[in-house]
Amino acid sequence: MVNIAYFYIYRMDYDPKTDQITNSKGIKTIVPGFGDTPEIEHLDSSSWFPIVKYYKPMVDFLVKHGYERGLNLRGAPYDFRVAPGNKELTIILLIRDSQ
User: Fold this and answer.
1) Which of 3, 21, 95, 99 has its CA 20 to 30 A from that of 49?
2) How many CB atoms are located within 10 Å of the residue 91 CB?
C-alpha cells in the first residue's frame, strides 16, 4: 500500500495559462549542485558506495582531454518534477550560472 502523503510531497502544480510549474503548498524544490559535475557523476553521490557511474566516464574523458570541472565543464542536474516547459526558470538558471 502506498502512503498517499508521498503524492502530495512529490506533486507539482501546472498552470497551462502561464506555462508555470509550482510546488505544492508548503513544499520547496531544491536542485542541489546545479553547474557542478559531482552531482551528475553518480546516480547517488551521497552514497558511501556510489556503484552506478552515471556521467562519470564522460566527465573523466572530458577532463582527460583538457576540460576543467567548474570552469568549462558543468553539470545540470534536475528534479524530474520540473518539466522542460518551465522556460523562464531554465533560462534564468543558465544565465546565472554562466557568469
Assistant:
1) 3
2) 10
State the Cα torsion 30-33-35-36 to the nearest 10°. Answer: -170
- pLDDT tens per residue, range 61-91: 999 999 999 889 988 776 666 655 556 666 6
Q: Which residues contact 35 (CB under 8 A, 6 or more apart)?
A: 70, 74, 75, 76, 97
Residue 16 lies in a domain: no
Cα distance between the two ends of the chain: 47
Contact between residue 75 and residue 86 where contact means Cβ atoms under 8 Å apart: no
* Number of domains within the chain: 1
Distance CA 37, CA 54 (A): 11
